[in-house]
Amino acid sequence: MSQKIELNSKKRVGLGRGLGALLQDSDTVNVNQNRPEKDRPTRLEVISSMNEIPVDSIETNPYQPRTHFDEEALNELADSIRVQGIIQPITVRQIAQDKYQLISGERRLQASKRVGLTSIPAYIRTADDQQMLEMALIENIQRENLNAIEIALSYQRLMTECSLKQEELGDRVGKNRTTVNNYMRLLKLPDVIQVALRDNKISMGHARAIINIDDRDQQLEIFKKTVAEEWSVRKVEESVRELANAAIASNETEKKAGGIKQEIRSLQFRLQAYFGAKVTVKADEKGKGEIKIPFTSQEELDKILLSIKV
């Protein structure tokens, strides 16, 4: 039989606007878990105060957005738990008699298993699959040690799987639209750059500079130099600006050349109409060139000479 631990303090842990709203933090509400199904809570209601529940009765969260756990950090957390115990309870939902599914606290659960704990303090809540996904994503987003790619993927899942618009997403996670957009843009980078960002081989500052390059090959070229030569963020930004300036200069040259070509083409059409014969006009950027008026008979030549009154 699980041991029930009552919380006397009304002070709440700051979870952020998004998660706080989802969890509907309020004074603990005790609900009889054995009451008829029609009387059971249907919203995110606390159905018990904090309880010690068996570790082996908890399933992992199928909606867990985090895909990479740092082994060293897990071992440090395990050492802390061994000395101090669990300071912040995990959160679960009950899916069957004596069976639970993790909502948040994956690292705490894993670390507890490493030190051999057989039970762990937990808040038990009701939540459907949609709420499970939102809570897991937002809870992870609000953690400082989540890497930029995991945050970006979590934002993407919240938008696609929870049908949230970018403005709504910003409200949920307590970030402005620009911040959300900066993370989402990282997912447009080539996979190898995303992996490097995930593994802390480059910083988000590096990635944000590289994403401003439109050409994928140039993105990869800058990335490889950044890693190989250990470029600073400022160095990457300078290189990106140089590429941008070169692209602008090239576009201006092409535009200028294109204008000249258009003028030559127009002149060629007018001459052809005037002489009633095929005319070829060629010119370079400096205005040097030639006009050719071929003829195939004495009659055509006489016609051309008559047109220019020679």
Descriptive overview:
It is a single chain. This protein has a domain at 1-128: Conserved hypothetical protein from pyrococcus furiosus pfu- 392566-001, ParB domain. It has a 5-stranded mixed β-sheet with strand order 1-5-3-4-2. The chain has a two-stranded antiparallel ribbon with strand order 6-7. It is elongated, with a radius of gyration of 34 Å. The protein has helices at residues 17-23, 71-84, 106-114, 129-141, 148-161, 166-173, 177-185, 191-198, 204-210, 216-228, 233-275, 298-307; strands at 51-54, 58-59, 90-96, 99-104, 119-125, 280-283, 289-292. Helices cover 50% and strands 11% of the residues. The chain has 310 residues and is an alpha/beta fold. Strand 3 and strand 4 form a beta hairpin. The chain starts with 16 loop residues before the first helix and ends with a helix. Helix 4 (129-141) packs antiparallel against helix 5 and helix 9 packs parallel to helix 11. One of its GO terms (biological process) is positive regulation of sporulation resulting in formation of a cellular spore. GO terms for molecular function: DNA binding. Pfam families: HTH_ParB, ParB_C, ParB_N. It comes from Pseudarcicella hirudinis. This is Chromosome partitioning protein, ParB family.
List the helices and strands and how they pair.
Elements lengths: L16 H7 L27 E4 L3 E2 L11 H14 L5 E7 L2 E6 L1 H9 L4 E7 L3 H13 L6 H14 L4 H8 L3 H9 L5 H8 L5 H7 L5 H13 L4 H43 L4 E4 L5 E4 L5 H10 L3
Parallel strand pairs: 2-4, 3-5
Antiparallel strand pairs: 1-5, 3-4, 6-7
Helix pairs in contact: 1-4, 2-3, 4-5, 5-7, 6-7, 9-11
